[in-house]
Predict the structure.
Amino acid sequence: MEYTISQVAPIVLLPFFAFVINAFIVKHFTKTAVAISCVSILGSFFFATRVFFDFLNTYSSGYYIHKTFTWFDISYGAFPFKLDMGIYIDNMAATMLFMVTGVASLIHIFSTYYMRDDKRYGRFFVYMSLFTSAMLALVLSENLISVFIFWELMGFCSYSLIGFYYEKEGAGNASMKAFMTTRVGDVFFLLGILSVWSVVGSVSFVDIYAAIGAGKFNGLYALGIPLATFAGFSIFMGTIGKSAQFPLQVWLPDAMYGPTPCSALIHAATMVAAGVYLSLRCYPLMEAGHLTMAIAYIGGITAFGAATIALVQTDIKAVLAYSTISQLGYMVLGVGVGSYNAAFMHLITHAVFKACLFLSAGSVIHSLHDHHTHAHVQEMPRMGGLRHKMPLTFIAMLLCTFAIAGIPLFSGFVSKDRILGDALVAATHSKWYWGPAILGFAGAFLTAFYMFRMMFLTFFGEPRDKELYDHTEKETLSWNRNLPLLILALFTLGVFFSGSFTGQGIIKVAGKKYEWFQTLIVKPDTKSFMSYRKQDFQFEPNRDPQQFEMSHYDPDHGLSEDEAHHVHHIHHIGALVSIVIAAAGVFLAFMMYVRRTWNPGFWVSLLSPWYRSLQNKYYFDDLYIKGLIQKVLLPLNNLLAFIDMGLYDRYIIDGQEYVNRVFFTAAKWFDNLVVDTALVDGNGAAIRFFNVILRTIQSGKIQFYFIMIILVLTGYIWNLNI
Amino acid sequence: MVSLTSYLFISFVLFVAGIAVMIARKNIIAIMLGIELILNSAALNFAAYTRFVNNNLDGHLMSLFIIVIAAAEAAVGLAIVIRFFQIRETIHIDDASQLQA
Amino acid sequence: MFENILFLLSATLTIVGVVGVVFSSNLMHACTLLLASLFGISGLYAVIGADFLAAAQLVIYAGGVVILMLFAVMLTGGTANNNNKFGIDKIAGMGSIKTYIIAGFTVIVTSLTVLKIIANYIKSYEAHKLPEFESTVEKIGTLLVTDHVISFEISSILLLGALVGAAVIARPKKGQE
């Protein structure tokens, strides 16, 4: 396909123009604004589909589109300072575009059902359009600065949307908390960008890969640690902030104050995935900086810790929030153990099923309307037996729960199992990787358990709140409520991602192209980027796609025979273990919440300190608010305020007043003496002097005139030289 | 004794006296007296010159005209003084200071 | 011989009269002394043979102008005023001593000027034989209507104007008399 800008730009520009137009018309033409938003995102989906299928048809792992234009170039002599902006689409980006636009359009359609009664119905879509345009631009961006710009823009949209229901008491705090926490990560992210820029001379991804391949980062140190490690970790801090990893995960549960479709889009599918996307893009840098173990541990701790907190939550959205944190931990774990492909696959599959889960939860919440408090019910203790009232939602949610729990034949199993398998492989190579691996498997068990706990509490058993249950209407199939859910649920089937049972090619479904995901999306090979040519933004015709040779699926992943066999062996073991623990989790949940044979209360009383700390989310909020903010930052703030107001203002600013006063006195003296007295009064005195003379002469006394005449005449005669 | 010098001397005395009268006296009519003295000094001067320098009687005529003019001027001047007295009720020269700035 | 005596008498009369005019405090005395000095001037005219001029001086000046002045003195309540004194006070804000100094200075300056002029002419003057005395009346008459007829006519008009003007200016105010 000929790629000029007109093929790719609509993906980003359609939602952006929808945002601009809606910003003006949303007050008066709400329904039109909503329609414009939905149509624009569907248009984006159309263009993204074209791009995606072009990449799929080319079927080459090295195929990419890269077009740039120079934004500014202020180089001076030997110091290059040039920033190009542009698009860079490779297979990963094309897949991500397809996923983001698809999920976003389904969420927009669902929002027309969910938000239709809200009094700020139109404004929601304004923010959503802005957000989708920012996310799509981030996926397309070709350099770190561009990523950062759209990263921050998405942060702003997240802030606006979390605080959407600003009448709610905690919403403002939650939105601020989200923004500030991600900001902490962003500071380090920017630091990382700058350190990379200083070494490589450019922030473009391809230039960074080429520089890593050329070894520019070797031998450079920053603060005593190698520069690649420093830069890589700083950039990874951006991921920690945005993707809610440990220790900055505190904002994501509070983000549930926002509307449910917003949670679905932003805090499940796209924005939090942007962090992982960044890590994937910068993976060669982190590999060069030997950070992968740290990344794996952070991912593992997050995955396990969030799963434990999710065990005790009673709000349906809170369970999903913690499960999001946990799954993001899995993605980061995947990045850490080196399974680039699996981490990205988990990102895609998680986006689909988590969006579906959130939307289904929204559907459930929206149906449960409490007539006394006029609010929608989110607490699971008041639900139960809802599968009779909402069968379609139940089916969608069930399919997605299978996916997240890691039941075979579903997409979640394919991706998660591959991550865990690669973790085991890494563990066999180095014993330090056993930590993340154990945490991953334990988290998988807990994930299965709490997700099915949620299902059983919500949809099974007897309704615990009779009045609520009776007032709930029975669900009917409607295009904007159920259809998005069912479409998303459809895509949770594993066949779309990998035509094999465990994702390893054991059982093949038709055709060799069915391992498209594994084939096309590969780690960037830094050596191959060293010889490379960018294209101008618009005018040069695309490179001939034929020059990209078609890739073939290599079941050995490029390893030697023995190693490949070892890897497959470990993967089989891992697959078996994950199936077993998933089944165990489901069984435990079934026994506890459906059959009620085992009492969860027993475990609660046994581990009550741990239970209390889980309810307080491991005291992270207290640590941050009481420990950090009140004990460290506030005193620091007071100190700085004292320096500014007490010292600086008082002495320097007010001291200026003293100096001014001195000058004023001198000027006043000068003014009085010189100007007033000498010039002004002197002028008057001179005039008065002449006045006296003239007044004397014009005395009106005739004899005086006569004297004057005589004197003048005699003077004239004396001068006549007679 | 009778020479141009003595006549010029007398004329000089008359002239200076006239100036003094005009400067010093405060009555307007007294000042008119001074004017007459000055005019007379000029006339005497002219007459002395016709006698002692050239003999063609132009000086006499000049003196005659001076006398005529002096008479006319005295008449008009005194008429003005009388008029001034009718208005101002005073003939002190310092009261005629309406030209004062 | 006779000339010299007449000259001295006339000169004395003139100068005494003039000094009196300057320094007298009574206006009537001043006018009378002016009359006397005019008599003296007339005598001086006679000494140099200007007979017509002497007569004219007596008739016009002594018998006309001074009389006129005396009438004016009468009409303006002359001697009753106390401003007949010779004094130069209050000229343009000066004190009395200063005014005397100013007046004296002016007189001295004037005198020196005139003397300077006179001195020049005296130096260039050569004595020559004086002509015989003869009657000047006829000659003046002839000159008046031949060489100086314009001046004559104009002076007559001037006298007419003076006459009429004086009458108009000194007319009594309306409602009076």
